[in-house]
């Protein structure tokens, strides 16, 4: 119930729909009882029951308005109508009244559901938006520790479960009201018979609570397994070529089948419990009605304190209680599943972002002097990736970071863009600690071109102009020309409006990289960060991309992380790294003369040394 209370905050924006739905639910519950009571005059007409009254009962105010007054007025109406218009017209009149009550009951039911649908869909939209906004606001480290498929499951199927479960609880306004109005009508007819009904409610409630205890925990297990199942699907689709190349279809099929089998077992266990509750509740209801039939029969046949018509109407009301009682049972079970689903969604909503901007963070709008790494140390988990690292990147200079894999080059790019925060030391931007500036304004000063050029399933133009609200076609074309991308774009049927496919699958590696470079150029930041931007390309593509990179870096500050040393020979400063520390630094020529680590790397790559 705790999670359901948290969920209620989403009702505020749609309270007018909730109020209208509650109003129509009240009217529905009222007319549900009236519709059953309306059967009583029809029975009186058909079986000529009731006292024949020809004098209209006197109404002296609300103190006379009770069941006796209503019954006397009904007898008067039936007697006078039958004598003046005949039994058929009387029956048609009474049937018309019955139809009217059932029509109003169903009309109010429809209206309550319509307004609840508006409420339901609005809340679902807001919850989805909140979860999505939270996801994209979290730091990169959060995603390193979580399965992508499980996060997708939490954001989709779990939210849908919340919708169906919590909404079924919100719809429960009508069920208790229906029971209350029905019980009131039953008490008015016979309080003695109604006592038996009260035995059914606590017995059913106890039975429901016993079943519901295990449903919540098992629902949580199912949601977790479904998240793993989705992760398995996502990994399979992403690595289908590797799976086929290593003929490991059987392994992945078995892994998937194990997940599916576990989910199937838990679903069956929950299904058995949920399937048992409704018929068991109905049987308990029929048991009570059977007792009512026996006891009520004595009141009609032996004691004669209750008329046959009143008893039939009473039995209709008693049976009518079963439907809302079963609905409450289902809602209780749904609430257990909804609680488990909300706990998984709340895991995202409650996740803390350690990189949140300080309330007094400064907004930077330009880059004037330098970026400095001041004695920084950093570790992802236990071991330090960088230790006591110092480096200055002056404005307008190209600084290249080279070294073996795992030496910490890419980590520096993650730190300067504040995807992660340093453990010790600090990084300053024009003398200001980057922890004291807004993350958004910091990243606006930087453009990144990585080894894996990530494109979105959209047009070329939209990929180039990513993040720019006022999109200028001429600027897009100019950026593409700087990136050596304009010529191949013009060869596509739809040119700049051509779709790049999922992840840029309709483009070659070199084309994707040049689109990524055009995107960085379009952003037009003063600082460029190139992370292994050409390492995955063939020689011809590398030449085109390298030319594009040189065009892009002109008159900009650049931090270049490179594996291929041919791409950094023109750098103003080359920093050679090993195990998170600087072992050498200098220009290409100066480092070659040292005959040290850099010279060895050049030799290994068979570069021509002049």
UniProtKB/TrEMBL annotation:
- What Gene Ontology cellular-component terms does the record carry? plasma membrane
* GO BP: any one term: oligopeptide export from mitochondrion
Q: Name one GO molecular function term.
A: ATP binding
Decide whether keyword ATP-binding is in the record. Answer: yes
Query: What InterPro entries does this protein map onto?
Result: AAA+_ATPase, ABC1_TM_dom, ABC1_TM_sf, ABC_transporter-like_ATP-bd, ABC_transporter-like_CS, P-loop_NTPase, Type_1_exporter
Annotated compartments: Cell membrane
Q: Which SUPFAM superfamilies match?
A: ABC transporter transmembrane region, P-loop containing nucleoside triphosphate hydrolases
Domain ABC transmembrane type-1 as annotated: residue spans: 19-337
Keywords, ordered alphabetically: ATP-binding, Membrane, Nucleotide-binding, Transmembrane, Transmembrane helix
The segment(s) forming the ABC transporter domain are 371-604
Q: What is this protein called?
A: Antibiotic ABC transporter ATP-binding protein
């Amino acid at each position: 119930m705790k999670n359901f209370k948290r969920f209620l905050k989403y009702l505020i924006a749609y309270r007018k729909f909730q109020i209208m739905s509650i109003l129509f639910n009240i009217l529905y519950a009222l007319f549900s009882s009236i519709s059953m009571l309306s059967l009583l005059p029809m029975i009186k007409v058909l079986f000529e029951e009731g006292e024949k009254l020809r004098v209209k009962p006197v109404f002296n105010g609300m103190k006379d308005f009770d069941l006796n007054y209503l019954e006397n007025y009904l007898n008067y109406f039936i007697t006078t109508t039958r004598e003046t218009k005949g039994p058929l017209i009387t029956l048609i009149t009474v049937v018309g009244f019955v139809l009217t009550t059932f029509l109003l009951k169903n009309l109010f039911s429809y209206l309550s559901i319509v307004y609840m649908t508006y409420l339901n869909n609005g809340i679902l939209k807001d919850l989805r938006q909140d979860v999505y906004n939270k996801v994209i606001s979290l730091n990169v480290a959060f995603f390193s520790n979580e399965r992508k498929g499980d996060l997708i499951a939490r954001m989709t199927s779990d939210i849908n479960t919340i919708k169906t479960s919590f909404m079924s609880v919100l719809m429960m306004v009508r069920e208790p009201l229906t029971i209350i109005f029905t019980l009131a009508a039953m008490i008015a007819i016979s309080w003695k018979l109604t006592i038996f009904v009260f035995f059914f409610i606590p017995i059913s409630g106890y039975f429901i609570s016993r079943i519901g205890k295990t449903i919540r925990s098992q629902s949580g297990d199912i949601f977790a397994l479904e998240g793993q199942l989705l992760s398995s699907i996502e990994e399979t689709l992403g690595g289908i070529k590797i799976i086929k190349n290593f003929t490991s279809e059987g392994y992945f099929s078995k892994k998937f089948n194990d997940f599916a089998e576990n989910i199937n077992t838990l679903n069956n266990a929950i299904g058995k419990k949920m399937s048992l509750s409704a018929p068991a509740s109905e049987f308990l209801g029929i048991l009570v009605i059977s007792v009512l039939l026996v006891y009520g029969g004595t009141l009609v046949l032996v004691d004669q304190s209750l008329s046959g018509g009143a008893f039939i109407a009473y039995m209709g009301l008693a049976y009518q209680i079963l439907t809302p009682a079963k609905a409450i049972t289902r809602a209780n079970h749904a609430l257990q599943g909804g609680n488990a689903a909300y706990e998984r969604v709340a895991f995202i909503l409650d996740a803390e972002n350690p990189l949140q901007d300080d309330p007094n963070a400064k907004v930077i709008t330009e880059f004037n002097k330098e970026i400095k790494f001041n004695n920084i140390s950093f570790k992802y988990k236990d071991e330090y990736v960088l230790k006591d690292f110092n480096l200055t990147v002056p404005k307008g200079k190209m600084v290249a970071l080279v070294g073996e894999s795992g030496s910490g080059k890419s980590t520096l790019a993650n730190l300067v863009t504040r995807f992660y925060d340093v453990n010790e030391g600090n990084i300053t931007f024009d003398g200001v600690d980057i922890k004291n500036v807004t993350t958004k304004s910091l990243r606006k000063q930087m453009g990144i071109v990585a080894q894996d050029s990530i494109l979105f399933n959209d047009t070329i133009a939209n990929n180039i102009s990513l993040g720019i609200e006022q999109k200028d076609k001429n600027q897009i074309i100019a950026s593409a020309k700087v990136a050596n991308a304009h010529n191949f774009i013009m060869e596509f049927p739809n040119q700049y409006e051509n779709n790049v496919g999922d992840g840029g699958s309709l483009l070659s590696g070199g084309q994707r990289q040049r689109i990524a470079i055009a995107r960085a150029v379009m952003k037009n930041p003063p600082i460029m960060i190139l992370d292994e931007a050409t390492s995955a390309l063939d020689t011809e593509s590398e030449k085109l991309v390298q030319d594009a990179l040189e065009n892009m870096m002109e008159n900009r500050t650049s931090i270049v992380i490179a594996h291929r040393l041919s791409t950094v020979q023109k750098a103003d400063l080359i920093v050679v790294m090993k195990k998170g520390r600087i072992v050498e630094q200098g220009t290409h020529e100066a480092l070659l003369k040292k005959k040290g680590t850099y010279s060895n790397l050049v030799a290994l790559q068979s570069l021509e040394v002049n």
